[in-house]
Amino acid sequence: MTSSLANTEKRYLFIKTYGCQMNVYDSNRMTDILTPLGFEITEDLEKADLAIYNTCHIREKASEKLYSDLGRVKPFKKKKIENGKDMLIAVAGCTAQAEGGEVMRRAPYVDMVFGPQSYQNLPEMIARAMREKETRDNPALRGAGILNVDFPTQPKFDDLPEMNKVEGASAFLSIQEGCDKFCHFCVVPYTRGAEYSRPVKSVMDDARRLSDLGVKEVTLLGQNVNAYHGATLDGSGEIPLGQLIQEIAEFDQFEIIRYITSHPNDVTQDLIEAHRDVKKLSPYLHLPVQSGSNRILKAMNRKHTRNEYFKLIDQFRDARPDIAFSSDFIIGFPGESDQDHRDTLDLIRHVGYAQAYSFKYSMRPGTPAASSEFQIEEAVKVQRLSEVQALLDEQKMAFNQKCVGQEMTVLFERKARHEGQLSGRSPYMQSVYVQANERLINQVAPVRIVGCGNNSLTGEVIITDN
Ligand code: 5AD
Ligand code: SF4
User: Is it the case that residue 151 has pLDDT exceeding 90?
Assistant: First the structure.
């Protein structure tokens, strides 16, 4: 890699993304920053001049994956250096933020470590890394040592380039970041920092660009997306998520609007009304509850009860009868008794989910629950998780069966494995397989669902006259 960043000589960027949609968004934005510097995406590590690992810290397994991937990239870097070239290795994202020093200690050949609030400075960091490396005797073993895990006072969004490229017809739009909730199991408030809502103007500017780029499905992103309270265009106040959705829906180009992830305590009337009034808003809501036990909800610092959650579910169903729900569950949180576990199963039965994610509780250093003396034995967690997952699987299958015979709007994404088949997504995020012409890729079309499996639907395109 040459040390000039101004040139447009072709270089290759390998970027691996772990974890949530926010990381997918961040990886796309890092690519936007690096494209003007001549970087082109490669999936071939051997070719990479810069390898970025955009990490997740939410559970222990997610972090451990990073170290095994770093072990794998090391020989590629060594070989490149032996051939008179170079490779920069960067660790980004939440593991970088939470344990940047540890990353450098365990993998000293890493050149740059930076958190989710610092990647807007990538060009400077790359330049610094290259200067630093010139001073190293053995750059294959000792990286540039750039560590950037500050939370800047100026939001990074102000420094990001315009969104100028999208893959397909679906795009993420980050509107909110960070979290002030401090659930007792969660690292997010420490890795992503304090809650921040982007002003309406900058969100709408991005929305306009996505519309101009031909995006048909936009997903509004935030760790606590329904805590959104962005400053209005004239600076006179703030608007909540429901109102923002109404504004975004004004773009004719957008046919499907989604948002993720919500917290029950931040559900407001305007959001429920948006589900009632905005046809483009998908009738699908990911509303994590984590546990069905009031005792555990309290211990988790979730600050709501199961009945309050049920009430919200009812309100959404009244506003939009075809709405379906998804959730996250943490199984085996410290102190969880058999009765608490039964309460979770009971909550799941009561709500009836289209699908949901469930995880064994994972101790995260620095969070309050990690120091609890009432940790649950692994075998108990495994058993309870399998019961929860069996019930959720049953519900998913029942939901898929209920979809058969229905007409749904589907965004087609790609060719499927079977000849002549396309795959797309239903409003409820199920994969839908349809025999259809390739011209439908990146188009939205009405589909009649004719069959289902555990994880997908099959359908037929409904031919309309117009
Ligand atoms: N252990 C297990 N699951 C966790 N989550 C967050 N922290 C932990 C943890 N320490 C889950 C929550 C959250 C989802 C993104 O990850 O269910 O909603
Ligand atoms: Fe983590 Fe709780 Fe914030 Fe969600 S609301 S990001 S679970 S602290």
Answer: no
* Ligand 1 center to 185 CA (angstroms): 7
Q: Could you tell me how many helices (H) and strands (E) the chain has, helices first?
A: 12, 21
Q: Is the CB of 248 under 6 A from ligand 2?
A: no
Percent of the chain with pLDDT over 90: 85
Domains of the chain in start order, with CATH, are 11-148 (3.40.50.12160), 156-402 (3.80.30.20), 407-461 (2.40.50.140)
Q: Looking at the DSSP assignment, which residues form a beta bridge with residue 91?
A: 53, 113
pLDDT digits (tens, 9 = 90+) for 283-335: 999 999 999 999 999 999 999 999 999 999 999 999 999 999 999 999 999 99
Specify whether the CB–CB gap between 173 and 218 falls below 8 A: yes
Cα–ligand 1 centroid distance for 372 (angstroms): 16
C-alpha of residue 210 to centroid of ligand 2, in Å: 28
d(CA 223, ligand 1 centre) in Å: 12
Pocket of ligand 2 contains residue 182 by CB under 6 Å? yes
List, in sequence order, every residue forming a beta bridge with 256; answer none if it has no partner: 217
Q: Which burial class, exposed, middle or buried, applies to 116 when counting CB atoms under 10 A from its CB (0-12, 13-18, 19+)?
A: buried
Question: Over the chain, what is the mean pLDDT?
Answer: 94
Atom of ligand 1 nearest to the CA of 364: 10
Is the Cβ atom of 189 under 6 angstroms away from ligand 2? Answer: yes
Per the CB < 8 A criterion, the answer to whether 366 and 185 are in contact is: no
3 state SS of 461:
strand
* pTM over the 0.90 mark: yes
Mean pLDDT for the stretch of residues 26-54: 94
Strands 431-435 and 421-425: antiparallel
Q: Structure tokens of 276?
A: 């009632």
Cis peptide bond prior to 261, omega within 30° of 0:
yes
Q: Residue 342's pLDDT band (boundaries 50, 70, 90)?
A: very high
**Two tokens at 290?**
């984590």
